[in-house]
Amino acid sequence: METYASVLNYAIPGFILLIAIEWLAGLAMGTQTIRSMDTIASLSSGLTNIIKDVLGLTVIVVGYSWLVSKVALFEIEATWIAFGLAFVGKDFAGYWQHRLSHRINIFWNEHIIHHSSEEFNLACALRQSISTIVSAWAILYLPLALIGVPAKVIAIAAPIHLFAQFWYHTRLIGRMGFLEAIIVTPSHHRVHHAMNPEYLDRNFAQIFIIWDKLFGTFQKELPEVPPVYGIKRPARTWNPFLIGFQHLWLLVKDAWRTRSWWDKLRIWFMPTGWRPADVAAKYPVSTLNDVTTLEKYNPKASLPLLLWAWSHLILTLGLVLFLFNHLGQMTYPEILWYAGFLFVWIFSYTTLMDRSRFAWIPSLLASGFGAVLFWKMEGWFGIGEVFGWGNALVLGYLGFSLVAAFAFSFFDFRQDMRQMASA
User: Fold this and answer.
1) How far is CA 400 from CA 302, 312, 394, in A?
2) What is the torsion angle, in degrees rounded to the nearest 10, for the CA atoms of residue 325, residue 378, residue 387 and residue 40?
3) pLDDT value at position 415?
4) Low-confidence residues of the chain, pLDDT below 50?
5) 135 - beta bridge partners?
6) How many angstroms separate the Cα of 253 from the Cα of each of 5, 44, 242?
7) What SS3 class is residue 298?
């Protein structure tokens, strides 16, 4: 837990710096790909995911350490050769995990948030799901386990492999010559994120594009077909929790509503988007058939709301980094309470970003939860010992946030509604 958190201390600022560079490069090139609310939503999604991962809140049904201890036919030393095997094997497994996540209903739920952005930029790379609660993907590492690649080698290769997938989420880099035949490039991955019929469910590879070419899922980016990004059942929210469980909730409702017991069982493992015939007829779901007609989700945001949303993200990022740097000084129950607050906090401000007139409710819960923790801990988890004004800053912002939420919900948003009604 602490080792992964220490890596993130460097990775998170690095990612944010690169996103800022992409924004500046876009301004210089006249090709701006970043929208404030979309970017805040993407970064907030990433924060929920890494908090969950650092805390080990995902139940691993089959772990690699257990797998290699049971099935290894050989014993390999932790050398550069072993690392190379691990990296290539991880990429092969990643291809199939990625492909299955797109093709099977229940697995799509944990991946949908990554495709939910209607932009394609470096921030989009960080849109990762909080909904992966149970995982058995380590079974795909069976070939590596059979030849005895040590678990500690996988532990080193995995984060490197993951971070190496960040850079190609951009529209600012064109085709890359001979590299197009070897590795996944921005052009390849733009195809993957697009929902045009020509591009749908193509280019699943994560590092080496050879897997798509071997298994028949490769598609070149076509100059005459500009990619349209997003999902065919648009999320229509900035809230990472709502996006992360939308598809699962639809599956649950469909399984409950269908009269067929066979459909109740098979719906989870049918191709993504499949619904029982009786439910689909009675409860139709809006799907984007002509992707060129997509109207990007963009609820009106005043300058005060934009500034408020950015301030929330910055404070949240600071609180997350404080948690990661003080895990060793906290008990596990304290860590869970801290994480629980962060989840409620992110839920509250992303709901307000959606301009929901009921956004004051989660904001009230978040500020109240934070105040209770502040009282119980006699300060904010020892932040006053590190930053002299830390306690005052956290407590003051909890109060300010609640006042702002009420102001937006009862004045700004409702005034806009009245204006729209009278227009």
Assistant:
1) 18, 11, 10
2) 60
3) 60
4) 420-423
5) 60
6) 37, 27, 15
7) coil
* Contact present, 59 and 133 (Cβ < 8 Å): yes
Question: What residues contact 277, with CB distance under 8 A and at least 6 apart?
Answer: none
Write out the two tokens for 9: 């201390």
Rounded to 10°, the helix 390-407/360-376 angle is 160
The residues near 423 (Cβ < 8 Å, ≥ 6 apart) are: none
Coil vs helix vs strand at 256: helix
Q: Could you write out the DSSP letters of every residue in 352-419?
A: HHTT-TTTHHHHHHHHHHHHHHHHHTTSSTTGGGTSTTHHHHHHHHHHHHHHHHHHIIIIIHHHHHHH
Per-residue confidence (pLDDT) for residue 414, from 0 to 100: 62
Q: How many CB atoms are closer than 10 A to CB 45?
A: 29
Note the pLDDT of residue 66: 87
Which token pair is 79?
Answer: 């050398």
Amino acid at 30: G
pLDDT in the model for residue 416: 60
pTM, full prediction = 0.93
For residue 145 the two structure tokens come to 């386990």
> In 3-state terms, what secondary structure has residue 260?
coil
